[in-house]
Amino acid sequence: MERTAGATPAAARRLRRVSGHVVPSSSSAASPAEQPAPPTQEQGVGGSEAFGYWPESLLLHKGTRRDAVLAEWRRRRPTAAAAMYPAGMGHTREEMPVLWNQHEWAEAEATQRAEPIFDAAEYEAQMAAQRDSFERDGYIVLRGAMTAAATEQWCAALRRCQELNDNLVRCNWESGIDWRGLGWTEDASPQPPTAEMIETATGSGQRFKPQTAENGILLLRQHSVMPEYCPAAHSGYLMRCLFHPDLLDLHRRCLGTSDVFLDNTQLNNKAAPQSGGPWHSHGTGVAGSGLYGERCDDVGACTDPAEYMAQPCINVMLVYPDGLAEKDGGTISIIRGSHFFRDVTACSAGSGAAGDAELAAGWMKGKTHPLTGEPLRTERLSLPRGSVVCCNTHAAHMVNPKPPGTRQRLACSWFFKKRSDRSGMTSAPYAVPPILALRAAEGELPKGLAAVLRNTYDPSLTDGSTAH
User: Fold this and answer.
1) In this structure, are residues 55 and 447 in contact, taking their beta carbons and an 8 Å threshold?
2) Cβ pair 388, 318 in contact under 8 A
């Protein structure tokens, strides 16, 4: 069943609160009456004019400069599109959605309508029970809310994306990748990864490091050649999920607006053993950096929920189709109310029990939940299959270690964001396939997908800034 952002009274209430920036049916929005001066080039993203560093954001320029960049994108499109899916990775046509034609997109939308992600009754019951949790506690948990079919499809898609990523890591670095097509300008191909780098990256997401311009890995990431940094670009199923009405409804309810935009998607699979991920939180990016007259990160607590949600907030959606079991490690820990403190830099510590103790003795010491008055404390989540966790912008979270011999954890994280209620601005995405952004700008994608990609090509959303 298709859901809309106004499906429940709670959602309607929150949509009214930000109604000045809700655009439910239009592909464009008017800029605020007063906007700051356009950012300088130094405030943008470094790299070449087209298909360089973070090229997906460069269609956000204004005027003649945008026209010039767009012309260059169009010229480079055939070679860059072909280079996005190296033959050695083994993609099927279904696994190359960025290149789908109009017939394939129409089929995708038809299939999407027949593939609900959530069990409707379970989803509505859990959302009603946690109606204010995203604002009050900084997160919500949908335990086993996926349908059985969706659970299996997500598991299969994440396993396959890992396989494709492993194929890339192991491929012939010189002959297996069209570096010129991606914009590589050096005479020689990048230095291939070492055996240690390959071993570390195999079976897990976000482990192919170091990522530098010199070794080419950064270029692969920026063009979404690496499935671990844009799994939806390498899976027909995940691409359909990217703009699925079920997930868009979730993002809209969490963020309190129908006007939501993609920031990035990541593969978070973890093979054992691993040390886990440290305590951290995410900031609001350029939209909350002061560029538009609003600073939201590392500036002290904001304890009023309505005022907090007026910021350019982010929904960090963590998907665990195979669940999280304590015995397998890799579980996620969170802290209720931590988002209100907006401490991106100071709220940090190691992983596991040692990280909990470090945080308790440091950043968390003496702090209480601004609304409940209860002392802040860490909570470790064990989840059944088909579960989803949504974390508010600054909510602190950590991934616990995975002991040797435990099964692979299947997970991915999708970041969606809203405009600031005050400035009406958002920021460029962190990672979107450049070809997908171009196709959105050219009107070649389904309306629902083009709408969440507007922050890749609509300068009115960023006032011409290409910065993330």
Assistant:
1) no
2) yes
Question: Residues near 149 by Cβ (< 8 Å), separated by ≥ 6?
Answer: 115
Residue 157 tokens, joined: 């898609």
- 16: Cα within 13 Å, side-chain hemisphere: 6
Residues 229/422, Cβ–Cβ less than 8 Å:
no
CB atoms near residue 356 (< 10 Å) = 21
Helices (H), ranges, 225-266: 236-242, 245-255
Q: How far is CA 330 from the centre of its chain?
A: 20
The number of CA neighbours under 13 Å toward the Cβ of 449 is 27
| Domain-wise residue ranges, the chain | 54-461
Give the whole-angstrom CA distance, residue 276 versus residue 66: 42
pLDDT given for residue 65 in this prediction: 87
Asked if 231 and 265 touch (Cβ cutoff 8 Å), the reply is: yes
Residue 133: helix, strand or coil by DSSP?
Answer: helix
Alpha helices, DSSP H only, in 211-304?
217-222, 236-242, 245-255
For the segment 192-213, the average pLDDT, to the nearest whole number, is 93
Beta bridge mates, 262: 416
CA 33 – CA 236 distance, rounded (Å): 40
State how far the Cα of 356 lies from the Cα of 277, in Å rounded to an integer.
Answer: 12
β-partners of residue 418 are: 260
- Work out the pLDDT band at 7, boundaries 50, 70, 90: very low
DSSP characters over 333-387? EEETTGGGG--TTTS-B-SHHHHHHHHHHTTTTT-B-TTT-PBP-EEEE-B-SSE
What is the spatial distance between Cα 42 and Cα 160, in angstroms, rounded to a whole number? 40
pLDDT band with cut points at 50, 70 and 90 for residue 185? confident
Per-residue pLDDT of 308-353, as tens digits, reads 999 999 999 999 999 999 999 999 999 999 999 999 999 999 999 9
- What contacts 40, CB < 8 A, 6 or more positions away? none
Mean pLDDT of 418-428: 96
What average pLDDT does range 352-369 have in this prediction?
A: 97
* Residue 54: pLDDT over 60: no
- Does residue 73 surpass a pLDDT of 60? yes
**Within a 10 A sphere around the Cβ of 23, how many other Cβ atoms?**
15
Alpha-carbon distance of 231 to 200, in angstroms, equals: 19
φ/ψ bin of 154: left (φ > 0), alpha (ψ from -120 to 50), beta (otherwise): alpha
Q: Which tokens go with 37? A: 């001066």
Q: Which DSSP symbol is given to 146?
A: B
pTM: 0.88
Name the class of domain 54-461: mainly beta
Element containing residue 280 per DSSP (H, E): strand 277-280
- Residue 38 pLDDT exceeds 80: no
Mean pLDDT of 460-466: 93
The whole-angstrom separation of Cα 250 and Cα 139 is 12
